[in-house]
From TrEMBL:
InterPro entries: GH (IPR017853), GH13_cat_dom (IPR006047), Glyco_hydro_b (IPR013780), O16G_dom_2 (IPR045857), SupH-like_C (IPR054049). PANTHER family: ALPHA-AMYLASE FAMILY MEMBER (PTHR10357), MALTOSE ALPHA-D-GLUCOSYLTRANSFERASE (PTHR10357:SF219). One of its GO terms (biological process) is carbohydrate metabolic process. It comes from Lentzea atacamensis. Residues 16-386 form the Glycosyl hydrolase family 13 catalytic domain. This is Trehalose synthase. SMART domains: Aamy.
Length: 497
């Protein structure tokens, strides 16, 4: 138990929220709603950007890293929110968006900080490649009339990239992190990590320090300032490439990385009503360093990216869950939330979230998932899924025994009572039918087995185990031979007697 509290993130329940859409009263409103999160079972709140911004990229275009946007409140309101969360046993982390700034940030117009950004006399052809938003941009370089040179922007042209190779920029990023940790944060979700570390010019890449050394420095800094601090990384790369961001097996860089590959495999499995793609992904997923962990999720605040699936498999998911072009984005993702994708099928929705909380990794919820919030396709781009929280729906579901909110509470409570799911070694089980995903987690003599039926038909299952099975979610005893109903899900604890 001592070790589990030291590495709290391994069995945490993270909840991502946007202060602006979670409450129309900013941080004060979020503080008033804190008991909703506590009752749900959340143990760590992840805040999307709340800094001053011109709002051209939903807050990710920042003009001041040391303040709260006046629309959302004050530093005092922020501190009160963090204090209220702490009072209920919840930690708070926030987005660290230091790959770029807004072009309205004072740094961008300060001649003494010219080297804080990436400039070139002409657009570079041997540096970064790949346009992130092909519907809005056609180049990674933009000419500045003020400076007379081109600046690099991996995202929108109004978001010039910071030159993270510059020691002054690195020191400033450390000051930003230190500032917010002094105000109570327990870490950061690091935005667009691969872009943050890439060399800006391939020609001189060999003469520059290893970019991963910078992540090591950030991790060392946060550990010195706050021994419980975490760095949760947005690294959407194949498994073997993602592992480098943990720290080459040492575990001295990112604390956790999102499992983008597993998430995309899950949607392919849902589309096929076959567990095969998810089972394959989990069997291929490397083990992170001892104190590191994967972060699992059903969806996040961006488009539901499917970019790691081959084109034909991506099309399968599009056909199943977003056939209309208006539901798709950038040719690689969906701008929908789960209930709409599953046509409101409550059995299937319940099964997917049961899967989330039983899979090995730290589960991350996006606000509103607990009440079945849906998207608004009339909003542009990724804003379709960043809709206002529906507090009327939350109120209606709070006391309903059959609501999604009640189901999520039960799942989270059961997850917290099954340390094997977070801490154990896991094994995918063959139960004879590809429609059923079954796996077991073992830790310190304890075993939990979870089975999930991806099909719209009943499936007989036999668990080849020795011992007594008890249904974790109901407390009932169970035989090793059972029938799973359409989209059914069960968790079992296996004991000797």
């Amino acid at each position: 138990m001592i070790r589990t509290s030291d590495v709290w993130w391994k069995n945490a329940v993270l909840y991502c929220l946007d202060v602006e859409t979670f409450s129309d009263k900013g941080f004060r409103g979020c503080t008033e709603r804190i008991d909703h999160l506590h009752a749900l079972g959340v143990t760590c709140v992840w805040l999307m950007p709340f800094y001053p911004t011109p709002e051209r990229d939903d807050g990710y275009d920042i003009t001041d890293f040391y303040a709260v946007d006046p629309r959302l409140g004050s530093l005092g309101d922020f501190v009160e929110f963090v204090r209220s969360a702490r009072d209920r046993g919840m930690r708070v982390i926030a987005d660290l968006v230091v790959n770029h700034t807004s072009d309205q940030h004072p740094w961008f117009h300060d001649p003494t900080k010219r080297d804080w950004y990436v400039w070139a006399d002409e657009p570079q052809t041997d540096g970064p490649q790949g346009i992130t938003f092909p519907d809005k941009e056609n180049s990674l370089w933009e000419f500045s009339e003020e400076v007379g040179k081109y600046y690099l922007h991996r995202f929108y042209k109004h978001q010039p990239d910071l030159n993270v190779a510059n020691p002054e920029v690195r020191d400033e990023i450390a000051r930003i992190m230190g500032f917010w940790m002094e105000l109570g944060l327990s870490g950061f979700r690091v935005d667009a990590v691969p872009f943050l570390l890439e060399h800006n010019d391939a020609a001189d890449a060999m003469s520059l320090p290893n970019p991963h050394d910078y992540l090591t420095d950030l991790r060392a800094f946060i550990n010195r300032r706050n021994g419980e601090g975490v760095l949760l990384g947005e690294v959407n790369l194949p498994y073997k490439d993602t592992m480098a961001y943990y720290g080459q097996g040492v575990g001295d860089e990112l604390t956790m990385c999102f499992d983008f590959v597993g998430m995309q495999a899950m949607y392919l499995a849902l589309a096929r009503q076959s567990s095969g793609p998810l089972a394959k992904a989990l069997q291929e997923r490397p083990q992170p360093p001892r104190d590191g962990h994967w972060a699992t999720f059903v969806r996040n605040h961006d488009e539901l990216t499917l970019d790691k699936l081959p084109e034909d498999e991506r099309q399968e998911v599009f056909d199943a869950f977003g056939p209309d072009p208006s539901m798709q984005l950038y040719g690689r993702g969906l701008r929908r939330r789960l209930p709409s994708m599953l046509n409101g099928d409550y059995r299937r929705i319940r099964m997917v979230y049961s899967l989330l909380f039983s899979l090995p990794g730290t589960p991350v919820l996006f606000y509103g998932e607990e009440i079945g919030l849906v998207e608004d396709l009339s909003l542009e781009g990724r804003l379709a899924v960043r809709v206002p929280m529906d507090w009327e729906a939350a109120g209606r579901q709070r006391h309903s025994p059959d609501s999604l909110l009640t189901w999520m509470r039960r799942l989270i409570e059961s997850y917290r009572e099954c340390p094997e799911l977070a801490w154990g070694t896991y094994q995918v089980l063959d139960v004879g039918d590809p429609c059923v995903f079954a796996h077991r987690a073992d830790c310190d003599g304890g075993t939990v087995i979870a089975v999930h039926n991806f099909a719209d038909r009943a499936v007989p299952v036999e668990l080849k185990v020795k011992g007594v099975l008890t249904d974790v979610l109901t407390g009932d005893g169970c035989d090793a031979k059972l029938e799973l109903g359409p989209y059914d899900c069960r968790w079992f604890r296996l004991t000797d007697k």
